[in-house]
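Troubleshooting: if your tokenizer reports a length mismatch, compare your output against this known-good record of 115 residues.
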Amino acid sequence: MPYTSKIARVVAEHEGYLYPALGPVARAVFSGVPTALADEDPSVRAAVATLHEERARFEASLAQRDHLAGPRLSAADLTVYPSTQLAVRAATRPAAAPLPFTVAPLAARYPKLAA
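Known-good structure output:
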């Protein structure tokens, strides 16, 4: 697969899977009144599970190479990085405590993604 196609694939996977799952979690955690968490909303818990699955896939990819789409930094890495950092920021909030959202510190669970 050509390098540009690999970049497009990673970006599409981020936009199709990781980013949509991050939305409900971030909204619940940062809303100030996280009723979705207090009520243990199944859609938020499902989104957390999806986030873990997607990060695990990215982690496995990084075990084979230094960057998500190939040998050098690309739009793929620059697309995934902000979402990863937002997830870490959300996970460190007290409102996230009821969720199985163990991503902080990121290096403990996903060392390649943290690097």
